[in-house]
Design brief:
By secondary structure, the protein is mainly beta. Helices cover 8% and strands 39% of the residues. The protein starts with 6 loop residues before the first strand and ends in a 12-residue tail after the last helix. The chain binds zinc ion (ZN).
Length: 161
């Protein structure tokens, strides 16, 4: 079977940045399963895997535009310190989360002074060129329920209560 829309693709991957630093890998655990064509993974990687099958190994480089996007300067903003819970640690480099309209959103603390904190709402990998080293473990047809939900159930995928 080949990776295509409506198929469940299970793969091992290692993600490195331009400096060769490993950002994420499945190699120490279970492989990742995703539903092809359902925006479960970034567009540039999905496109590269289209039509591949079990045993396929590839090195895929994904530019920011097809990964997590370019950094948006407007996503960096200042917020008054009193908008944060007093016990929240506001240290540059630390990620904090807040309740957004569609659930929690996460920000990186850029800098802090007496009155305000500067936060960056960009995805941590925005602006990064991503290097994936992937190995397709399995390709199977998605169940009707998986297609309906837009994600994979069971091993390597989504677990419902
Ligand atoms: Zn589901």
């Amino acid at each position: 079977m080949k990776a295509a829309v409506g198929m469940v693709v299970t793969m091992h991957y290692t993600l490195t940045d331009n400096q060769g630093e490993v950002l994420d890998t499945s190699r120490e655990g279970e492989p990742l399963a995703y539903l092809h064509g359902a925006q479960n993974i970034i567009a540039g990687l999905e496109r590269a895997l289209e039509g591949t099958g079990a045993g396929h190994k590839a090195k895929v480089t994904v530019a920011p535009a097809e990964g997590y996007g370019e950094k948006d300067p407007e996503a960096v903003f200042e917020a008054p310190r009193e908008h944060f819970p007093p016990d929240m640690e506001l240290t540059p480099g630390v990620r904090v989360s807040a309740d957004g309209p569609q659930g929690p959103i996460s920000f990186m603390v850029v800098s802090v002074n007496d009155k305000t904190a500067t936060l960056d709402g960009n995805h941590p990998l925005a602006g990064e060129t991503l290097h994936f080293d992937v190995e397709i473990v399995n390709v199977r047809e998605a169940t009707g329920e998986e297609k309906e939900h837009g994600h994979v159930h069971g091993a390597g995928g989504h677990h419902h209560d």
